[in-house]
Specification:
- With about 190 residues, the chain is mostly helical.
- It has helices at about 5-10, 25-50, 55-90, 95-120, 125-130, 135-160, 180-185.
- The two termini are about 25 Å apart.
């Protein structure tokens, strides 16, 4: 599978978590996702650092919004192709789900710490806003779990798919593979 086929497959299977994805589909789609996000970031930096006026500013803002929406719309297919990639080696997609939930919890905890630190804007009180005690332990545990889950999923994505059919469907690399019906996938 080449990059164009991978991108097409990712968007065609926008909300599809069933089935399997070969390594090439996953890695090409991840590359596309990363390049799109880098373009969004660079465009944002350019808009913030250069003063534009009139029509140019409006056009650049529209282009930036389009890139931002495209990157946001690519997050769900990226999550789904990761689930299908994990299925390809015979693992449950819950590995990806638990990692995603852990990331949300960590983001929430860090957001709380940043909010508290911002509220305590007086430099003498800055230390009072930094995490301590229980919050530092929570952040540390969530961070360590996130690292472990991230490494586990990374290892899952580089492993070759299980040969033949597994409980998530036929091997996507087999040219003679017959697709498993949605009804069969729902039962497993």
């Amino acid at each position: 599978m080449n990059m164009q086929q991978s991108i097409m497959s990712g968007y065609q299977k926008f909300f599809t978590r069933s089935g399997r994805a070969p390594r090439s589909e996953y890695w090409y789609f991840l590359l596309f996702y990363l390049l799109l996000n880098i373009a969004v970031q660079l465009l944002g930096i350019y808009l913030r650092t250069h003063d534009h006026s009139g029509t140019t500013s409006i056009l650049l803002s529209i282009v930036a919004m389009g890139f931002w929406l495209a990157a946001l719309a690519t997050a769900v297919p990226m999550l789904m192709v990761t689930v299908r990639r994990v299925h390809d080696i015979g693992r449950t997609g819950w590995w990806v789900g638990v990692s995603f939930i852990n990331g949300l919890l960590l983001d929430g905890a860090l957001g709380y710490v940043i909010f508290r630190t911002t509220i305590m804007h007086n430099t003498q009180n800055l230390q009072a806003g930094l995490p301590g005690g229980g919050m530092a332990i929570v952040l540390g545990i969530l961070g360590l779990i996130g690292i472990a889950l991230g490494l586990t999923i990374f290892i899952f994505t580089i492993l070759p798919g299980s040969p033949g059919e597994n409980r998530y469907g036929p091997n996507p690399l087999d040219s003679h593979a017959t697709p498993v019906s949605e009804r069969q996938l729902d039962r497993s």
